[in-house]
Specification:
Length: 229
């Protein structure tokens, strides 16, 4: 399952594969232009090719897989389709189509709830409607304690602020005017957040940055979906 971007409108492309594979739509939301697909297939082996792109060792998510072939430019890995039910939210987000895998539930509302990290859920409880979003990235106002921590940290280590920093992830980057990464994993952003496929988001103050809780695999992974923002 993937998204075709060529001349003309974008389209979803889906191969059912074996007749024993089960695919069904469990919910639709006409206002959001989104549907939920449930996919289940028996465990089955397949091969996945990955470009080296100058790397001498595979990325971490591939290192436990068996290499069945290696050339100067590619590795080919043996993979297995998972036997559990997989759930995909598919639809349109602003300007483009998307596919996002999530855990639990069968409705579009379930998918949106499941895709929110716990930190965003808690922020929404204390300040409903205040969370901003751009694609898979969500921006919430930090708690008073977090704001004090960040202010103290920047006073002592001002060079932590990175100009035009990438928030991370695969594909074309979401770029922040100003970005701070603390404790190795917490990200804060301020100013404009830009991405060619999304409207620019403007953050007047520092915001805590979360990535959504989508089930992530490789570029074309065992979930059978290829999607890059």
């Amino acid at each position: 399952m993937d998204i075709i971007r060529r001349r003309g409108p974008e389209t979803f492309r889906l191969w059912k594969g074996q007749e024993s594979n089960a695919i069904r739509v469990t919910d639709t939301d006409k206002e959001r232009h989104q549907v939920v697909l449930l996919v289940q297939e028996p465990p089955r082996s397949f091969e996945e090719r990955l470009a080296k792109r100058g790397r001498t060792t595979p990325p971490p998510e591939f290192r436990d897989l068996r290499v069945v072939k290696e050339t100067r430019r590619h590795w080919t890995f043996l993979r297995w389709t998972p036997s559990m039910i997989r759930r995909f939210l598919c639809g349109r987000d602003e300007r483009h189509l998307f596919i996002a895998q999530f855990d639990g539930g069968s409705s579009v509302k379930d998918a949106h709830r499941r895709l929110k990290p716990q930190g965003v859920v808690e922020a929404d409880r204390s300040a409903p409607g205040a969370t901003l979003r751009q694609g898979e990235w969500l921006f919430v106002s930090p708690s008073p304690a977090e704001s004090r921590f960040l202010a103290d940290r920047l006073r002592s280590v001002p060079f932590l602020v990175r100009r035009l920093g990438s928030l991370g992830g695969n594909g074309r980057p979401h770029v922040a005017d100003e970005m701070v990464r603390t404790d190795g994993e917490r990200i804060y952003a301020r100013g404009r957040i830009r991405h060619p496929d999304h409207r620019t988001v403007i953050l007047s103050d520092w915001r805590r940055v979360y990535r959504n809780a989508e089930v992530r695999t490789s570029e074309v992974g065992a979930n059978g979906a290829a999607w890059r923002d």
